[in-house]
């Protein structure tokens, strides 16, 4: 299925994802009457990325600005309907898009009518609800104050009123004294401040009585439940009344009239209760009518919403097209994969037929020097791995894609740091749950963390499988070793070796067939042995992956016909660290006790000295001298030839170009001059700049070869940390609690062990190993060959537009 085109395409492996799809710049000339339908069909197809041919125009100056405004207004109405459905706890039912759907003009009219009707219903319901809440409050005031008046006709109230009357008469004895009253409800939290302000404002010339209301009431203004106090204020004089009214308004106290006569009070209570029951029935009818409207909307909401989103996207795309001088055709330019040519032409043909246009669309491929976008065809398994690479940078057009190797190397390097087959099984079970329920979960709206885990479920699946594999190699199940593949190769020499030290062990059986012998776990030499093993493994894996990166740089250079730096880079890396890897393998095979640190250090400091007991094979001294010489030679080899080769290629490319303009006519001379000036500006060769750039690149590679190899030691460090943490949790929590022979302590210990394992080892350690594996791929592996300076193919596709907006 690999469709990679371009020069040198045969030099790379023919496999999916290795090279991006071959792209072409196309021009489509569409008659105005079929443009809308053509763009709609292309949106369904999703294989054409339109270029904006109206960059110089603002959004308001473009041809279809009015249509986009209409679609925006319809989208606003749909958002209003969605809010109303959410308030009424009515969910939109997903229905399939029917062929006999409304046209956009009919939908606009229908949405307008529904909005007017729903707005009127809501306004009436709000008005009725406000009146209902006021009547409920009024009823509460009447009943509460009636109870107060019935129960509190004592001396205190009479004395307070008498004092109030006496104060008024002392102030103006000739004045006829007449008391007034105000009653209502005040929020309970403001009651004390309300009473204090009233007392200060009237200088004590008032009588206030408050009674708490047993149940919270709905405030008519805010529509929220609130605890309130019923109050009655007795005062004298208009000035006092005006002050009290202002204070009531400031404190949000709702005032209601309270008749003085007991008979009128009872009559008013009956009238208010009757009105409340009538209003309640009216409100229920109004809400039922509103719900019926919203249910009718909900059955078609998704279809309408999809139609409006598509229509808006179509007009946005049409605004990117150029209108020809006759205003009868629209000209579009864009990128498409080469394999999609026939599909695009079919879509344009169908649009011509369905729109009954007399003129068909014209499709033609344009020649261009512009770099095409990058397009990889991925599936649900490979897409997450490709996103890991894309997060670093989008591949340049048809550049070798690290995503192919990431599918295996990323989870494997993670597992090297996370090797425990017990923990691997836990992650596997969690991942299988996501995979088994993927259809249901894909249709739900997940939170950010869950959505991230669901999107990378196949990455986590591979990570868990490799963790089980490396865990079996390390022979660790929650840090506990098992003799899964046979008996240990070692046994105690005598009963005194129960201290588990290798000095007291003798080899009695063949070597343990797979992974680490379980006898090493718990022995005194466990840490030195596993340290040595994992450190050497880290170096071997690092050198292998860096060599793969350099080999991929060779395929890139061959494909793009660039100057090669492949050979000196390969020589330099393997003269030093490739040789170290070879020494590690020889030491393992021979069982030698040579000190590799000493060998590598004195290879540089004293290359001519005898190796003595550190010699691993005959002729090692001569080999080291040759490798050191090759490493030194490879540095200028990386630095000097490439700039000279680029200069020679530039001179050959521009040789004799100055004579071409003499053979042209006057009109074409101008064009050629402009082209020549442009090409001169873009392709002027500065040897000093190229040399400095290559110098920086050489220094970066030489220093990076050392630092990158050291960086792979994180595999050893994190693997050791994971193993030791797992061992601590097992021995110091689970085993320790088991030793107490107490069921309560054992349960507490098991709970602590469970939470520590999940929280630290299965969450934090997983995240840590993931980030370190990410770093190794981005920095140590990809920088050997991957430029990542391309841009992603973003076709006009309804599916992605609707998904993004959701």
Could you characterize what this model shows?
With 806 residues, the protein is an alpha+beta fold. Helices cover 61% and strands 8% of the residues. The chain is built from 24 helices and 13 strands. The strands form four sheets. Strands 1, 2, 9, 10 and 11 form a five-stranded antiparallel sheet that branches. A four-stranded antiparallel sheet has the order 4-7-3-8, with helices on both faces. Mean pLDDT is 84; it is low at 1-15 and 658-682.
Work out the strand percent: 5-15%
How much helical structure, as a percent, in the residues? 55-70%
Largest sheet: 5 strands, antiparallel
Total helix count?
24
- What global shape is seen? extended
> Mean pLDDT across all residues, rounded?
84
Low-confidence stretches: 1-15, 658-682
| SS-based class | alpha+beta
How many strand segments?
13
Radius of gyration: 42 Å
**What's the end-to-end separation, in Å?**
33 Å
């Amino acid at each position: 299925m690999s469709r990679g085109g371009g020069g040198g395409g045969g030099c790379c492996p023919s496999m999916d994802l290795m090279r991006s799809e071959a792209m072409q710049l196309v021009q489509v000339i569409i008659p105005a009457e079929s443009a809308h339908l053509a763009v709609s069909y292309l949106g369904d197809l999703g294989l054409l990325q339109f270029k904006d041919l109206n960059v110089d125009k603002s959004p308001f100056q473009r041809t279809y600005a009015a249509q986009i405004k209409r679609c925006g207004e319809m989208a606003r109405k749909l958002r209003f309907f969605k809010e109303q459905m959410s308030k009424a706890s009515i969910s939109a039912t997903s229905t399939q898009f029917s062929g006999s759907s409304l046209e956009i003009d009919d939908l606009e009219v229908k949405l307008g009518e529904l909005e007017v009707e729903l707005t009127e219903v809501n306004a009436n319901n709000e008005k009725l609800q406000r009146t209902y809440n006021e009547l409920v409050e009024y009823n509460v005031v009447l009943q509460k104050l009636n109870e107060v008046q019935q129960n509190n006709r004592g001396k205190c109230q009479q004395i307070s009123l008498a004092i109030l009357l006496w104060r008024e008469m002392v102030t103006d004895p000739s004045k006829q004294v007449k008391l007034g009253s105000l009653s209502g409800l005040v929020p309970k939290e403001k009651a004390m401040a309300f009473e204090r302000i009233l007392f200060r404002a009237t200088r004590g010339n008032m009588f206030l009585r408050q009674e708490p209301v047993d149940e919270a009431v709905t405030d008519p203004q805010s529509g929220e439940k609130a605890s309130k106090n019923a109050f009655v204020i007795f005062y004298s004089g208009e000035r006092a009344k005006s002050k009290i009214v202002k204070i009531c308004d400031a404190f949000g106290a709702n005032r209601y009239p309270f008749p003085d006569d007991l008979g009128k009070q009872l009559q008013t209570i009956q009238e208010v209760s009757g009105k409340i029951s009538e209003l309640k029935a009216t409100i229920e009818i109004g809400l039922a009518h509103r719900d019926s409207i919203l249910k009718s909307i909900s059955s078609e909401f998704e279809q309408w919403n999809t139609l409006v989103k598509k229509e808006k996207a179509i007009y946005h795309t049409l605004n990117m097209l150029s209108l020809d001088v006759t205003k009868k055709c629209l000209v579009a330019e864009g990128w498409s994969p080469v394999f999609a040519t026939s599909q695009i032409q079919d879509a344009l043909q169908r649009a011509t037929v369905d729109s009954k246009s007399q003129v068909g669309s014209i499709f033609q491929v344009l020649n261009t020097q512009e770099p095409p976008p990058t397009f990889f065809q991925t599936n649900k398994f490979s897409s997450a791995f490709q996103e890991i690479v894309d997060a670093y940078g989008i591949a340049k057009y048809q550049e070798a894609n690290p995503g192919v190797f990431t599918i295996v190397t990323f989870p494997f390097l993670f597992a090297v740091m996370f090797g425990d087959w017990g923990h691997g099984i836990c992650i596997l079970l969690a991942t299988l749950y996501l995979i088994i329920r993927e259809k249901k979960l894909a249709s739900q709206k997940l939170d950010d963390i869950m959505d991230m885990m669901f999107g990378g479920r196949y990455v986590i699946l591979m990570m868990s499988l490799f963790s089980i594999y490396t865990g079996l190699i390390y022979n660790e199940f929650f840090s506990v070793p098992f003799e899964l593949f046979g008996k240990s190769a070692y046994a105690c020499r005598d009963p005194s070796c129960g201290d588990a030290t290798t000095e007291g062990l003798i080899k009695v059986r063949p070597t343990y067939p797979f992974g680490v012998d379980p006898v090493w776990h718990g022995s005194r030499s466990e840490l030195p042995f596993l340290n040595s093993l994992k450190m050497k493994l880290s170096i071997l894996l690092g050198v292998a992956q860096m060599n793969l990166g350099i080999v991929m740089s060779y395929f890139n250079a061959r494909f793009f016909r660039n100057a090669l730096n492949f050979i000196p880079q390969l020589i330099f890396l393997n003269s030093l660290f490739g040789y170290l890897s070879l020494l590690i393998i020889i030491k393992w095979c021979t069982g030698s006790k040579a000190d590799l640190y000493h060998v590598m250090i004195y290879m540089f400091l004293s290359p001519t000295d005898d190796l003595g007991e550190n010699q691993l094979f005959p002729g090692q001294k001569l080999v080291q001298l040759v490798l050191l010489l090759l490493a030194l030679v490879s540095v200028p080899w990386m630095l000097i030839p490439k700039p000279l080769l680029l200069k020679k290629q530039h001179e050959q490319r521009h040789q004799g170009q100055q004579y071409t303009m003499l053979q042209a006519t006057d009109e074409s001379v101008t064009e050629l001059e402009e082209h020549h000036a442009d090409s001169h500006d873009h392709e002027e060769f500065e040897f000093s700049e190229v040399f400095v750039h290559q110098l920086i690149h050489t220094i970066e590679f030489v220093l990076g070869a050392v630092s990158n190899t050291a960086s792979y030691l994180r595999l050893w460090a994190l693997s050791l940390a994971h193993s030791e943490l797992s061992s601590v949790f097992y021995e110091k929590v689970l085993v320790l609690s088991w030793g107490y022979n107490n069921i309560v302590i054992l349960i507490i210990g098991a709970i602590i062990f469970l939470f520590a394992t999940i929280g630290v080892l299965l969450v934090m350690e997983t995240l840590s190993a993931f980030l370190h594996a990410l770093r190794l791929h981005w920095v140590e592996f990809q920088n050997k060959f991957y430029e990542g300076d391309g841009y992603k193919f973003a076709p006009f596709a309804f599916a992605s537009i609707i998904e993004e907006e959701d």
